[in-house]
Amino acid sequence: MKFFKGLGDSTRLRIVEALLEKERNVSELIKLIRAPQSNISNHLACLKWCGYITSRKEGTSVYYQITDDRVKKIVGLAREIIADHAENLYACTRIKA
């Protein structure tokens, strides 16, 4: 299902988690994620296209934010499930990390 693939990529998920804290521009995300600008920009385009994030322009900078509270809830629920089942998830040999 494409919905989960959108959040299933580790870089995109790290971007979403960074945006849960506050809105950020590409430069801030490059420093946090430690990935090349082109990589971050491609993932931001994907997340925006899928509706997970939106952007606003301020001067020469573009700031990205999560505007759908359901995305925040999904990430929060995922964290809870991981906390409750961490041992099993990490021991699973059927799902590749």
What can you tell me about this protein's structure?
It is built from 5 helices and 3 strands, in the order ααβααββα. It is of the alpha+beta class and 97 residues long. Strands 1-3-2 form a 3-stranded antiparallel β-sheet. The longest helix is centred in the last third of the chain and has 23 residues, at 69-91.
Pick out its properties.
97 residues; alpha+beta; Arc Repressor Mutant, subunit A; three-stranded antiparallel β-sheet; 12% strand
The average pLDDT value, as a whole number, equals 90
Largest sheet strand order? 1-3-2
Radius of gyration: 14 Å
- Number of DSSP helical runs: 5
**Unreliable stretches covering 5 or more consecutive residues:** none
Compressed to H and E, one letter per element, the order equals HHEHHEEH
Content of β-strand:
5-15%
Major pleated sheet: 3 strands, antiparallel
Topology-level CATH name of the domain at 2-67: Arc Repressor Mutant, subunit A
CATH architecture of the domain at 2-67: Orthogonal Bundle
* Helix/strand/pairing category: alpha+beta
CATH superfamily of the domain at 2-67: Winged helix-like DNA-binding domain superfamily/Winged helix DNA-binding domain
Amino-to-carboxy terminus distance? 18 Å
- How many beta-strand segments? 3
